[in-house]
């Protein structure tokens, strides 16, 4: 793939930025966005940064009808000294291409995507909030745009990146959530699209979330789609269990999203010499561990919350209280370490962070 | 729901209509479209027929990210005398609302939708082709439009109907197709979205279609998502087997789309006193029936092809030839009867067709 000249068209009027304290998730967007087109003849072409603006699409555009789309989510952090850091962005672009492969979408040059993203962030750098816990959420995504109703991969796409300043996930300190173990609805089955970050996986979960809310729980714990027996993931996070001093997380079964925070947590635990296992974990085993007193901590991992401690699990008639509904020591340590690395407050022995300034 | 005044804004310049012989599926669209908006405060509001035109949506519109969308597909036929018929349209709007329920989308008044559709077709009536086998394909769909990235049901939607004149499915007479029995990829699992007509189910199938094509077969036969043992559906059609004079089709397992042509075929067969059974059918059973000579016919049913005879099935090492790769007598009879009713060439003892003129 040849490097194409990036066209930059800046906005003439900048939007008013929301107060850091008023930020919500994914509600405000910055002044600019990145966009690039694809056709069978040209491949990916015409990369450009333009003022944030509506898309104009034919009502027959395939994304509306057959859902051929993939996305990513990552964050940029600005530290006190003004430096800007991304957390393992190359992992996100690698996963975007893996998702695209499952959805029959043409891949994009990963290094080039990162270069475009950096340029976009430089232009909208003033939008990155600095209050503790805040960040700039980055949403790269691809949509199928060919205006025809035949059920087949699209011959045209748009790749875009939009940016949204987001508030602290934990406004009043890190706190455990309750989760509802879903035993009716299915998130994903082997051979399906569960490992891909694609739109259809997310709307399919709304019904289960309704049930969780009706049962006074914050999120859903998904079981496997075949037997409803093995633990898969929490809401849109991966899940970890601390059992008798060891950490266990569901293995990549073919229907679980390969989280980048999940991967980082595993690497961190190994570096701390804490035993960590990726394997099949049945919900029955968790109930037993709770009864025998070996279930020490449960937490979710994901880009939004980083670490989300679980204080309670509700599965059928079983109500499991974890660590007295308090944030466990390991959850806290992981949260502090990971967010420290992400924001630049702590050293980064793994070389996970990418500083925007390093290449200016 | 109160009836709202339908606003009609006609186009000033009509597009040139394609030749009937040059029609493809879902490529050309008529001069007008129907659109209506939804907000939590107003419900569905502002129904209008306007010139066919691009949609303008925020790049953060939820449909691009979380796939909350449902659709339908049905056809209008124009007969020699100029009368226009719809085939069981109330079934489509009922199913649209069922799909919407699974996807947490607010329902639409079914009778009102049908009234809007009729008005739209009246305005674009000249677009309905009359050559044998041609029709006007109708695509009603709903998309989530709220511009925010939180993973939750949208608070805003658009409901639209677009129309596309389509050519004959069988240009050279009804002909059997070969199908590839997919044993790796999964279309749907119990508890998933398989019974809903939603975008994510369709793009998820592209990889399997690639494998079918690579194996020189026209379409995919899906097996159940749990054991890859039981037959579910063909491509985007339901599937029927004639075994020893009886007709068998997979029961509605919770992961199969409830086809309207499927339902009509079952009702037709019953009216002809041909035994028809809805039940679990394993692919092993079909292999055995082929060996013992009791597999007489296989056919798919759907809006596009109406009846699609299957001449060959490829499953692992088994190659099953059905009825000497020729269209069976029952497939032909069903095709003739159903298309006859749809176009008005035959009597409609079931009251399935809705004539536009009846209410003018």
From TrEMBL, chains A, B:
Query: Which EC numbers does the record give?
Result: 2.6.1.42
Annotated GO molecular function terms are: L-isoleucine-2-oxoglutarate transaminase activity; L-leucine-2-oxoglutarate transaminase activity; L-valine-2-oxoglutarate transaminase activity
Task: List cofactor names only.
Answer: pyridoxal 5'-phosphate
InterPro entries reported in the protein's UniProt record: Aminotrans_IV, Aminotrans_IV_CS, Aminotransferase-like, B_amino_transII, BCAT-like_C, BCAT-like_N, BCAT_family
Residue numbers carrying N6-(pyridoxal phosphate)lysine? 197
User: Membrane-crossing residues?
Assistant: none
Which pathway features in its UniProt record? Answer: Amino-acid biosynthesis; L-valine biosynthesis; L-valine from pyruvate: step 4/4; Amino-acid biosynthesis; L-isoleucine biosynthesis; L-isoleucine from 2-oxobutanoate: step 4/4; Amino-acid biosynthesis; L-leucine biosynthesis; L-leucine from 3-methyl-2-oxobutanoate: step 4/4
Q: Which reaction does it catalyse?
A: L-leucine + 2-oxoglutarate = 4-methyl-2-oxopentanoate + L-glutamate; L-isoleucine + 2-oxoglutarate = (S)-3-methyl-2-oxopentanoate + L-glutamate; L-valine + 2-oxoglutarate = 3-methyl-2-oxobutanoate + L-glutamate
Q: Which GO terms describe its biological process?
A: isoleucine biosynthetic process; L-leucine biosynthetic process; L-valine biosynthetic process
Which SUPFAM superfamilies does the entry mention? D-aminoacid aminotransferase-like PLP-dependent enzymes
Nucleus in keyword set: no
What is the official name of this protein in its record?
Branched-chain-amino-acid aminotransferase
Organism whose genome encodes this protein: Shouchella clausii (strain KSM-K16) (Alkalihalobacillus clausii)
* Biological classification of the source: Bacteria, Bacillati, Bacillota, Bacilli, Bacillales
């Amino acid at each position: 793939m040849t490097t194409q000249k990036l066209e930059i068209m800046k906005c003439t009027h900048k939007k008013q930025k929301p107060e850091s304290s008023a930020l919500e998730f994914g509600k405000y967007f910055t002044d600019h966005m990145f966009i690039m087109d694809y056709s069978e003849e040209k491949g990916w072409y015409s990369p450009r940064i333009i003022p944030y603006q509506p898309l104009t699409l034919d009502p027959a555009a395939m994304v509306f009808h057959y859902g051929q789309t993939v996305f990513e989510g990552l964050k940029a952090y600005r530290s006190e000294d003004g430096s800007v850091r991304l957390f393992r962005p190359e992992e996100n672009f690698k996963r975007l291409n893996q998702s695209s492969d499952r959805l029959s979408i043409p891949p994009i040059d990963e290094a080039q995507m990162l270069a475009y993203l950096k340029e976009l962030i430089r232009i909208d750098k003033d939008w990155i909030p600095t209050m503790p816990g805040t960040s700039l959420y980055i949403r790269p995504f691809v949509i199928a745009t060919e205006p025809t109703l035949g059920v087949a991969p699209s011959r045209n796409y748009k790749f875009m990146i939009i940016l949204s300043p987001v508030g602290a996930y934990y406004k009043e300190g890190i706190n455990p959530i309750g989760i509802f173990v879903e035993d009716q609805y299915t998130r994903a089955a082997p051979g399906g699209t569960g490992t891909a970050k694609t739109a259809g996986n997310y709307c399919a979960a709304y019904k289960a979330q309704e049930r969780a809310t009706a049962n006074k729980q914050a999120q859903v714990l998904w079981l496997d789609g075949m037997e409803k027996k093995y633990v898969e993931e929490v809401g849109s996070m991966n899940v970890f269990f601390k059992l008798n001093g060891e950490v266990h997380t569901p293995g990549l079964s073919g229907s679980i999203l390969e989280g980048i925070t999940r991967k980082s947590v595993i690497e961190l635990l190994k570096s701390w010499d804490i035993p960590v296992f990726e394997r099949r974990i049945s919900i029955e085993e968790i109930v037993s561990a709770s009864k025998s007193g070996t279930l020490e901590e449960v937490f979710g991992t994901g880009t939004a919350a980083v670490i989300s401690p679980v204080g309670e699990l509700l599965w059928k008639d079983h109500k499991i209280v974890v660590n007295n509904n308090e944030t466990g020591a390991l959850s806290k340590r992981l949260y502090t370490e990971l967010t420290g690395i992400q924001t630049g407050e702590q050293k980064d022995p793994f070389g996970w962070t990418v500083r925007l300034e390093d290449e200016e």
